[in-house]
Protein: YceD family protein
Amino acid sequence: MKFSLQKIKREAPYDFEDTVNVDELERMENDIRNITDVNVKGDVSVRSETYTFRYTIKGTMTLPCARTLVDVPYEFSVQAIDQFTTSEYQAQNDEDIHFIDQEVLDLMPYIKENILLEVPLRVYSDEATMDNIVSEGSGWDLLQEDEHLDLKAKHEEEEQEKVDPRLSSLKKFFDDKKD
Structure:
């Protein structure tokens, strides 16, 4: 979403609405497995050299369930306010105002940032049952509690039967005493 600053200044207050593709967020290191095109709607007001963007971002992202790792659709709506200025002095004195040194403003990095800030730490699937749980992955398996206890008992039994090769001659010592 690119905006001409001259057009905004000429038509202020300037309203905008668009559907944008942000699927590159899926390839970043986060939990977003899929994200639909998002709807961005808002307005821009201009005061002196400051452009204030007030906009809403709506869409749906797919995240993994914290319990079962199944896909969970998560609808989001983000209210955002971003301020930009063409005055370098004003941008240096206020960290909430972004400096613009061009005639065209690209709002996409700010849209993506606001979406990433909206990703929740955990989501849970309402339909999470034992039937749709991901039961294995690369280097791991999901076990039921009784399977785990059986495997643990078997492992402990094997550990007890193993004899350290350095102590194998002592095992013969006790066999000789019985004779």
